[in-house]
TrEMBL record:
Sample GO molecular function, one term: serine-type endopeptidase activity
Species, as recorded: Chionis minor (Black-faced sheathbill)
Location(s), subcellular: Mitochondrion inner membrane
Gene3D superfamilies to which the protein is assigned, alphabetical: Umud Fragment, subunit A (2.10.109.10)
GO biological process, one term: protein processing involved in protein targeting to mitochondrion
Keyword Protease in annotation: yes
Stated name of the protein: Mitochondrial inner membrane protease subunit
Amino acid sequence: MLRNALGKTFRFLGYTVQYGCIAHCAFEYLGGIVVCSGPSMEPTIQNSDIVFSENLSRHFYCIRKGDIVIVKSPNDPKSNICKRVIGLEGDKVCTSNPSDFLKSHSYVPKGHVWLEGDNLRNSTDSRCYGPVPYGLIRGRICFKIWPLNDFGFLRASPNGHRFLDD
């Protein structure tokens, strides 16, 4: 009887470890559901919106300008942030705030991206902490799940004029 109980316990633990590994791989490499908080991506993503983030793009280096990404915060590695990619390595970006009279520009260094929130007046982004290493990108947001009346693919950036093509 003890042998039978131990056998069932070890089988249960084996299945738990196997399914745990499968779940980990799915969330690490395929994607997952993310609840966004904060005003930095308004009006595209509101506080408490639920989105789907896919992770394959970051592994295959398919992140493009205009994509909205989930990134490990450069200021706090325990938290994630949601921002739009404004520039990729080698791109010229406007590093000043929209309200600044004199505009300053810089180039994104190799292996980095330039991130900004859609709500430029209320966003802590690359204008504050500089270019972000590509390795901090966790995933790319594909579409919004909640609220249902806003279900679907995300809108284009309201700040498209900040994308420079020089």
